[in-house]
Specification:
The complex is a heterodimer of chains A (253) and B (222). With 253 residues, chain A is of the alpha+beta class. Chain A folds into two domains: 4-104, Ubiquitin-like (UB roll) (Roll), CATH 3.10.20.30; 122-252, Alpha-helical ferredoxin (Fumarate Reductase Iron-sulfur Protein, Chain B, domain 2, Orthogonal Bundle), CATH 1.10.1060.10. Chain A has eight helices and seven strands. In chain A, strands 2-1-5-3-4 form a five-stranded mixed β-sheet. A two-stranded antiparallel ribbon of chain A has the order 6-7. The mean pLDDT of chain A is 95. Chain B has one domain (2-90, 102-217): Up-down Bundle (3 helical TM bundles of succinate and fumarate reductases). Chain B has nine helices and no strands. In chain B, helix 2 crosses helix 8, helix 2 (11-36) crosses helix 9 (191-217) and helix 8 (155-182) packs antiparallel against helix 9. Classes of the chains: A alpha+beta (253), B mainly alpha (222). The A-B interface holds A 10, 23, 73, 75-77, 81, 102, 104, 107-110, 172, 174-177, 179, 204, 207-208, 210-211, 214-223, 226-227, 234-235, 237-242, 244-245, 248 and B 3, 7, 10-12, 14-16, 82, 85-86, 88-103, 106-107, 109, 174, 177-178, 181-186. The complex binds iron/sulfur cluster and FE2/S2 (inorganic) cluster. FE2/S2 (inorganic) cluster binds next to loops of chain A.
């Protein structure tokens, strides 16, 4: 797939977590506007390999907006200038030929850089491990409608469950706060009957883990909601606040 | 640590403190603005002085003043703690930051709060210290209204007060609705009202406040 877009890329290069990084500039030519942003990186990496240079490390997996791996901070926005998409869903037609594009890794003390654009997001896994699960045996799949769940609750739970754990909310937040992510994970369980058994301890434990990982405190700027590729709503953060304070005053632990 | 202090010092607990103290300061602003607006009656300060005297003599108001200062102090300290903790969460900064995902004032609450604090020091010195810690007013030497007129003779004071009011306006524009979100109050039925009411409040109250020094300076209030 050849095209006629020529771009200048300023990409963050960093050997590993213990070294200092810096920006490298690359001229990328012959890019098609139908390519995704990651495919443009594939082209660049192929050229780097052919030239005997180290390719740029970046995370990716599904390339269809469901795995949440493709973390790139593009021209000052997580996942680039378009709203509601991941980097893999971002097309080169969103840019102008001749443009300079700056690509940085997610920046947060809780997301240390592993290499180049790859960051370690295992802090998210530990928040989930702290309480984002149900430990009752739910058995086989239920017959449809065996569990009465109001439509609104099901809708809200599904909307929260759309979170792919990409970390764009943290990357966008001036406080590097993980509240949108954590609240989505708390919400999807607290809205459904299966999540009730551990509802009280869940909010307390997940919030404590979120703080321990070194994420900041939310100041309600709304940057996370604006940048989230799955358009997770700020209502989830309010719900988390209710869940948390409700748990604090009523849990016995 | 008891469960109370432990949870109040968590990230969510600190937000709760900001919200509760912030809203109590909002309630104070309503009273403060209402009383001071009495100068616009333009009766030589009679109504205003009477209201001010009532506030100064009423036992419950004086007791509430302690609560107000406690709330204010808590709001400032908690805000500074949050600001300092949050500023450490991104040790390596971005080279390019797009600013389209949020409003500048929602990102600048610390700065706006600091401006307000500086203004407040001057403001307290102008009126609160004079009326509470000197016998200037109580001795009947001067009324609070006369004190106000004297203070706002100077252009620089008027400018500082207007800048203070502008900071207050932006601080409230974000802070008012933000407090409700922190309290977990986000609901399709009420949130639109909270947001528009908060915006109206954030514009009208500081405007009324700012009108006072300006009107006095320009000689509209006799
Ligand atoms: S809330 Fe949105 S931005 Fe944050 S991790 Fe989930 S999908 Fe990504
Ligand atoms: S690579 Fe899976 S979401 Fe982008």
């Amino acid at each position: 797939m050849e095209g006629n877009m020529n771009l200048t890329l300023k990409v963050w290069r960093q050997k590993n977590a213990n070294t200092e990084g810096n920006f490298e500039t690359y001229d990328v030519t012959g890019i098609s506007e139908d390519m995704s942003f990651l495919e443009m990186f594939d082209v660049l990496n192929e050229r780097l390999i052919n030239d005997g240079k180290e390719p740029i490390a970046f995370d990716h997996d599904c390339r269809e907006g469901i795995c949440g791996m493709c973390s790139m901070y593009i021209n000052g926005s997580p996942h680039g200038p378009k709203r509601g998409v991941t980097t893999c869903q971002l097309h080169m037609r969103s840019f102008q030929s001749g443009e300079t594009i700056t690509v940085e890794p997610w920046r947060a003390s809780a997301f240390p850089v592993v290499k180049d654009l790859v960051v370690n997001r295992s802090s998210f896994d530990r928040i989930i491990a702290a309480g984002g699960f149900v430990s009752v045996n739910t058995g086989n799949a239920q017959d449809a409608n065996a569990l009465p769940i109001p439509k609104e609750n099901a809708d809200d739970a599904f909307a929260a469950a759309a979170c792919i754990g990409c970390g764009a909310c943290v990357a966008a937040c001036k406080n590097a706060s993980a509240m949108l992510f954590t609240s989505a994970k708390i919400s999807q369980l607290s809205l459904l009957p299966q999540g009730q058994a551990e509802r009280l301890i869940r909010a307390e434990k997940m919030v404590a883990q979120m703080d321990a990982e070194g994420f900041g405190a939310c100041t309600n700027t709304g940057a996370c909601e604006a940048e989230c590729p799955k358009e997770i709503s700020l209502e989830n953060i309010a719900r988390m606040n209710r869940e948390y304070f409700g748990a604090v005053v009523s849990s016995k632990g | 640590m008891s469960w109370v202090t432990k949870n109040l010092s968590s990230s969510l607990g600190r937000k709760l403190i900001m919200a509760v103290t912030g809203l109590s300061l909002v309630a104070f602003l309503v009273v403060h603005c209402g009383i001071n607006a009495c100068i616009f009656v333009n009766d030589g300060g009679e109504t205003f002085n009477a209201a001010a005297e009532f506030m100064a003599k009423n036992f419950f108001i004086r007791a509430a003043e302690f609560g107000l200062f406690a709330g204010l102090l808590l709001h400032i300290i908690d805000g500074l703690v949050l600001w300092s903790a949050n500023s450490k969460k991104r040790p390596v900064k971005y080279a390019v930051v797009s600013k389209t995902n949020s409003t500048w004032y929602s990102r600048s609450m610390g700065l706006l709060g600091t401006l307000l604090l500086i203004f407040l020091v001057l403001h307290l010195k102008h009126f609160w210290v004079v009326s509470r810690f000197t016998d200037h007013i109580t001795s009947g030497e001067e009324t609070l209204f006369q004190e106000m007129k004297e203070t706002f003779q100077y252009l620089w004071v008027v400018i500082v007060y207007v800048v203070g009011c502008i900071s207050l306006s932006y601080h409230l524009l974000h802070g008012f609705q933000s407090a409700f979100q922190s309290l977990g109050w986000n609901h399709p039925k009420y949130t639109p009202f909270v947001k528009s009411f908060g915006a109206g409040f954030a514009i009208i109250v500081p405007l009324v406040f700012a009108a006072m020094p300006v009107a006095i300076y320009l000689g509209f209030i006799q």
